[in-house]
Amino acid sequence: MDQSSISPIRTSRTPKPQSISDIVSRSHIIKTKKQDSRAKQIHQIRLEIQSNKEFIKQQKEQDLKAARDKVQAIKGKKPSHMKNSSSSTNIKTQVLCKNNLKTHLAWINEVERKIRMMDEQENKLIDQINKVCNIQLKTQRGEKKCLTPRPNNSIY
């Protein structure tokens, strides 16, 4: 059997090299393909890094903008960009403003409740003073004294 008739099965599409120059050119092609694939991978990694940097930069800008809006909302100023836009940062700021508004409204309601209680106490004291004054007027006129005891929290 001839060795030329028994050749291994080739799966590659490239023809079997016949000369040294073919082998060199084929190895050069393989090397360039590897370098190209490495260059593509490096380029892809650089693009990913750049996009990550841009994303991080945008995220920082949004966080900074949100922080400024929160400060303005706490100070009671309406952020200028909230007039016509509706981004997620603005929605967060609006929620913060609503929460602050709810807190302020609760505080105002509490203060109003305390004021009403103080007004009721003041009205009670005024009624007690008027009763005492009426009793004193009646005694000065010689009318019968009221035998009801004075309240303990009376100012007289």
TrEMBL record:
Q: Which domain of life is it from?
A: Eukaryota
From the UniProt entry, list the residue stretches annotated as the region Disordered. Answer: 1-40, 60-89
- The Polar residues compositionally biased stretches are 1-24
Instruction: Please note every region of biased composition (Basic and acidic residues).
Output: 60-72
> What name goes with this protein?
Uncharacterized protein
Q: Which organism is it from?
A: Stentor coeruleus
